[in-house]
């Protein structure tokens, strides 16, 4: 998200020094504080903790990046992006169909 530790601490209602300790792996995090961090990122606790096969895949990383960008958008922008993705999906599907005919 490009946030400082201070910004994340403010959004999660946690002290920035504590956030820094978590980032450096020096602090154990309670479930309650994990929940606060998830909320700050507008994620569910499950989304925050999900690591397929123990480490994020390249695809999972891309999907997470897309979701983080989308979460910052307002409803009108999301509606536009949804329409754009649907048009793109139709185009990709038709292109694959055309390649199958050649």
Query: Oligomerization state of this entry?
Result: single chain
Q: In CATH, what is the class of the largest domain?
A: Mainly Alpha
- The count of strands amounts to 0
Distance between the termini: 44 Å
Task: Describe, in plain words, how this protein is organized in 3D.
By secondary structure, this protein is an all-alpha fold. The chain has two domains: 1-71, lambda repressor-like DNA-binding domains (434 Repressor (Amino-terminal Domain), Orthogonal Bundle); 74-102. It has helices at residues 5-12, 16-23, 31-40, 45-49, 58-71, 75-101. Helix 1 (5-12) packs across helix 2 and helix 1 packs across helix 3 (31-40).
Give keywords.
single chain; about 100 residues; mainly alpha; 434 Repressor (Amino-terminal Domain); 2 domains; about 70% helix; elongated
Could you give a short description of this structure?
By secondary structure, the chain is mainly α. Helix content is 71%, strand content 0%.
What does the secondary structure layout of this molecule look like, with pairings?
Blueprint: H1 5-12, H2 16-23, H3 31-40, H4 45-49, H5 58-71, H6 75-101
Helix pairs in contact: 1-2, 1-3
